[in-house]
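Blinded run. Sample ID left blank on purpose so nobody reads anything into the name before looking at the predicted structure. Input follows.
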Amino acid sequence: MPTAFVLVNTNIGSEMDVLREIKKIEGVEEATAVYGVYDIIARVTSDSMEMLKQKITWDIRKLNNVRATLTMIVNENKDAPPKKAEISPLLITA
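Blinded prediction complete.
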């Protein structure tokens, strides 16, 4: 079953309101407020990858007071390492 973790950044002071709305969305298995750059993390599942993308795009990202999201799709093939083409190194320069 396709699963994603969605990090949500909200407008200041609206964290708990957005969290309540996210928890109402079908397919949100778990959601909690967190401290840091993002305000909420949610675990979302769906029957298909297309439905998962739609749920995140249209149900979570379009909520009032959501400023930004970062979505991480779970690698369902846990036994296989990522293919080399899927790995993009992060280069940090001073």
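Unblinding after everyone has recorded impressions. The chain has one domain: 3-73.
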